[in-house]
Design goal:
It holds the Pfam family TetR_N. With about 190 residues, this protein is an all-alpha fold. The protein has one domain (about 5-190): Tetracycline Repressor, domain 2. It has helices spanning about 5-25, 35-40, 45-50, 55-75, 80-85, 90, 100-105, 110-130, 140-165, 170-190. The protein is globular and about 60 Å long.
């Protein structure tokens, strides 16, 4: 039975979405093509009808996950986003959470296409997190971008460090709690506790 062009595009999108989740849960090396295709409900043989290589899918799945992360950041106010981002709930659900926190360390060892997808996703996240008042002049915009980069790096780093600890570790929670308080204080212009 011949698959329509629209159905082939829908199948590809489903595979990319499934891969995005599985890669965040298990890392790039923790997911094989056969497992991925089975999770998406397709046969292993169909993979190469959609993608030239696993690296091609990794780059596309990274772009998909990073776009979802940027979208999520715009759907709520900044304080609520930070509270969720630096929470145990987010920490314990890497497959549903931030692609950067789940895969940045893996992406650093991947082909250029994957790293380029991460760079574009990080730029997009920085863009959606800017406020209109930050664009007054070049110096102010540059300082605001530097603050957004520092806050993003702290939040992602805190999540990565927390996830590296055992689930029942007090340190895992402490990392999130301390960084959440610091990020929120810096966002409000107050001194961190």
């Amino acid at each position: 039975m011949k698959v329509t062009k629209a159905q082939a595009q829908a199948n590809r999108a489903h595979i990319v979405d499934t891969a995005s989740t599985l890669f965040r849960e298990r890392g790039y090396d923790g997911v094989g093509v056969a497992d991925l295709m089975a999770a998406a409900g397709f046969t292993h043989g169909g993979f190469y009808k959609h993608f030239g290589s696993k690296a091609d899918l990794m780059a596309e799945a990274a772009s998909c996950g990073l776009a979802k992360s940027a979208e999520a950041a715009t759907c709520t106010d900044r304080e609520s986003f930070v509270r969720y981002y630096l929470s145990r709930e987010h920490r314990d659900a890497p497959g549903q959470g931030c692609t950067m926190a789940a895969l940045c360390t893996d992406a650093a060892r991947q082909p250029a296409g994957v790293r380029a997808a991460f760079a574009a996703g990080i730029e997009a996240q920085l863009a959606v997190s800017s406020a209109p008042e930050e664009q007054t002049d070049a110096a102010t915009a540059e300082q605001a971008r530097a603050r957004r980069i520092a806050l993003m790096a702290q939040a992602v780093g805190a999540m990565v460090l927390s996830r590296s600890c055992p689930d029942d570790s007090a340190l895992a929670d402490e990392l999130l709690d301390v960084c959440r308080a610091d990020v929120l204080a810096r966002m409000s212009g107050a001194s961190a506790p």
